[in-house]
């Protein structure tokens, strides 16, 4: 279980990106984090694995407080947090297999990783994962020869081979077409259920979030303004999260169209 308590981030610039956020994510739960640009979604994900240092508050994963760990302890705990990014962050000139295996770098020793010598058990697991996401035939292809959807599947395998207990996912579908986006979201949710992983998925596409996850959290200016089921996410709630301006503009457009129709 992942627990955030009063998690706060104020950047050097004075931007209060995260404002005392309290959140529990139990094992096996996939939570979608929505909110307008600048709401603090990426900041929240990065504060959890301390790519960004929180200003105050705590993050606890399976009883271990991450926020008070030193560098050595943090490196070890980071293995338990798989990251998946919008831009995939694959090594282009390496093969699919090598990219997946790079997820084990936190485990194998320095020389082994320098020589890229992975234990057979890691290679076997990489094949199993690639098979699970439908890419086993592409194991020897170079990453730069893949489509966006295929690249994201590789990114998912690379995160899972770490054997994490939580997945942190930042805009996994932002570069993908609608159908591929659905396939990737479905895959993430299924894998989390199979492996009992907690996951936080930052996502701009509210409809996509509603389609696949059971819990949605809304952030606005660093503050949690909604926490509920997809069915609770009414138009009023969306107005609270995204603001009046967006919706009134939408309504205005409808009015204009009506006038055109009338004319
Ligand atoms: N490295 C940084 N230094 C200073 N301010 C930052 C930094 N990163 C983010 N911010 C600020 O913190 C706030 C939250 O940004 P964040 O990137 O977390 O938002 P987001 O919800 O992920 O937005 P988007 O949907 O556009 O990705 C913004 O006001 C942003 O300008
Ligand atoms: Mg972001």
From TrEMBL:
Keyword Hydrolase recorded: yes
GO molecular function, one term: ABC-type phosphonate transporter activity
Annotated Pfam families: ABC_tran (PF00005)
Cellular-component GO terms for this entry: membrane
EC assignment: 3.6.3.28
Top EC class for this record: hydrolase
Domain ABC transporter: 2-246
CDD domains recorded: ABC_PhnC_transporter (cd03256)
Keywords, in A-Z order: ATP-binding, Cell membrane, Hydrolase, Membrane, Nucleotide-binding, Translocase, Transport
PANTHER family reported in the protein's UniProt record: AMINO ACID IMPORT ATP-BINDING PROTEIN (PTHR43166), PHOSPHONATES IMPORT ATP-BINDING PROTEIN PHNC (PTHR43166:SF6)
UniProt name for this protein: Phosphonate ABC transporter ATP-binding protein
Protein species of origin: Parasedimentitalea marina
Gene: phnC
